[in-house]
Amino acid sequence: MPEYTVRFLPSGRSIPVPEGKTILDAAIAGGIALRSACGGSGTCGQCRVVVRSGRVDAPRSQRVRPEDAALGVVLACQAVVQSDLEVEVPEASLLSEHQVLAAGRARGQTVGEGEGEGRSEGERAHLRPVFRKTFLRLPEPGLEDASSDLTRLYTALAKEEGSRNFQVGLELLRKVPRLMREGAWQVTVSCVDARGMTEVVDISPGRDDTPVYGLAVDVGTTTCVTHLVDLLTGETLDVRGAYNRQARYGDDVISRIIYADENDDGLVKLQGAVIETINDLVAGAASHLGIRGEDIRVVVAAGNTTMTHLLLGVSPTYIRLEPYTPAATSVPPVKAREIGLAVAPDAWVFCLPGVASYVGGDITSGVVATGVASSDDVVLFVDIGTNGEMVLGNRDWLLACACSAGPAFEGVGIRHGMRAMKGAIERVEIDPSRDAVVYRTIGAARPAGICGSGLIDCLASLRRAGIISRNGSFDTAYEGRRMRAGDAGPEFVLAFAEETATGEDIYISEPDVKNLIRSKAAVYAGIRSMLRMVDQDISDIKKILVAGGFGSYLNVRKAIEIGLLPDLPESVYRYVGNTSVEGAKMCLLRREARREVELVARRMTYLELSVGNTFMEEFVSALFLPHTDLSLFPSVSA
What pLDDT is recorded for position 63? Predict the structure, then answer.
């Protein structure tokens, strides 16, 4: 089979690829991160490149204008390599750094390297980490007490641990007699709770106060975040976040499941991509702190159900097929070496349990981190990411659901939509009297597209300016150069070509608006469906917790104006940040927290929105701005 070379500009990187592969395949092989929200199906149009020399077989695409195609523009995922190529990659087609919400805080990108969280002595006294060191003084054996060395160890540990359910591996058992005597019957024992047992994993002669580290991981669809924690003090020593490299194969979980199904090595590639992402974060943290990855002795990971499957290399095929059955919602811990994590090879990796195919460990982790499960009042927990996941309840009951709403708010299916990356429009105000648009971009860069928070601002501003009606139709009588007729209907230009990084107008079309309305309707219908399930009213909700990266950049007032979130006083709303990683960290530091997450997962009732008519009735009613029933949005009507 012939092999060709694809040379990418401006990087100058040359990648050999066999015949029949696409330019996107070459980019992936060379570590060039092209935007590909659709996972290579050719529908998103984000992976546009320019073929400067060579031959490709590229079908015509509605995502590439004829005048651009004449200049060599193709979709990398559709262009099959037929000779040596020279390909120019526009900056707008690259996955740049994403705004990563690395901690449980209201706003901000990645928390600074090495930023820690100090703990008082009182807080440290209550630490009960899942991996810990215990110093023991053991009674020496004698003729009157000839108990075995291991019995002696277990008896002393039981007094400290309050448990008698211990185990030790054969390799360590062989060392026990020597280690006991080397330490003159004083030893430091390292233990970890796993699979219903307390496992003794290490024994050191004498007192050993060297630090021991744990890793909390948020395995997100869009980003991965790590917190490196000193398990002796409870201090967070390093916080990092990065784009999940699985984005090469699709922006959302459904695209990735399809990729895993339709490619012989798809599952292997997807698992390798997320492990590679986490390992790079671990390497960066270890280098910064002057430690080794092998010094990390335990990992707690929280992710949605699909991400957990892909992290472990378990097929997620049936998650997307009715009746939407995952391989597991609660998985046993595994050793780091089994999945390739670059920490101590025998470190246990705990994946927090989920509830159903679309409510995973990231949500149960967040519910525990925010105290929803112990609240006296009714609380609504909302995480609008790639999917919209919600929990309603208090200490007495918990109800969860998930709706397919997030992709549009992540920029998927929107002509100029994009992730929250440099150059994304994140704030929009429209002044119809001057035919003017005031926008703000991430990184103050020239606009390359519009991200979720900008889309919500845009929708609210268009409605407020009277440019769109309540059902999302454009008022074509609007006078101004920004309104025009497009191939798919009316368009409103947010930024003209001379202003943008792409050299083309950035606009929002009527189909884009209708897509966004469907997405916001799904979220609001999910909330209303849960309320109806438990015979509650919106006014019964005393607190709304908005979690996740998208939520932390959300303008709540604008979200209420379009009918995405309930019309309640803004004082009811709280930004709670990355509760997935915060909950994982709690489980590292307190064994009780891990048990609480497991209990919450068992307590939570999952509402399958596809069953019955309630959700569809609410969805249809919500397909207006802000809603068909204006009494639900009195502040917007006023």
Answer: 81
